[in-house]
Amino acid sequence: MKLFLTSNIGGIQEEKGRRVPCALDSSNHFTKLLQKYWKANSKILIISSDPENEEINDKFKALYEAAFKISGFSLSQIDVCDRRNENKFADMLYDYDVLILAGGHVPTENNFFVRLRLKELIKSYDGIAIGISAGSMNSSDVVYAQPELDSEAVDPEYKRYLKGLNLTNISILPHFQRVKDLSIGGLRVLEDISLPDSKVRPFYALVDGSYIFVENNKTTLYGEAYLLKDGTIEKVCEKDKKMLLD
Asked: What residue ranges of the chain have pLDDT lower than 70?
């Protein structure tokens, strides 16, 4: 498997209050590296993060189909897996060249992955897998599900650590350029949530355009990223640079 763990792949932008397709984000050689492994007339399967929301799933399918074509990627088919076809997933999975693990609400997506038995089934998958935001987070062996909602931030029963797909042992926090300055439930995300949680388990914070690529047990970080560990934060990679991770 060729595994891309991204914060955001681009491909969608806001225009006059509506989402429209655009080119994928080529920062840090992302599209160039992806093209290296891309097959002509690839078949893409988007695994939804919100399996009950058929309307939004179909909209994202159409947007990403246009975005990949705009960016010069050859594809013959793009489908979405949600509640409408989840009972067929085990038979569908291996027919696709590219899997997209969608962005969204981490615990909701995590529950759907469990329903699909994705952790078990993906072990035999030999194509390209692209995690986007929550999809990247849920790819780890231990998922750091940082609170996203006010209610989650103040709920002592909220589970911040979940079992993931075990495609990597690296925990990821996406969209760091934005979330580091936010407050949730009256708590500062960086100072009151992220840094204290890093004492439990370290994780890499990615800004949009940065990503981690895994192939043959070799893990490479591309672009601006930060390591949060033991209550500290360190910038470990710059834009247009790369580094090997243990």
From this structure: none
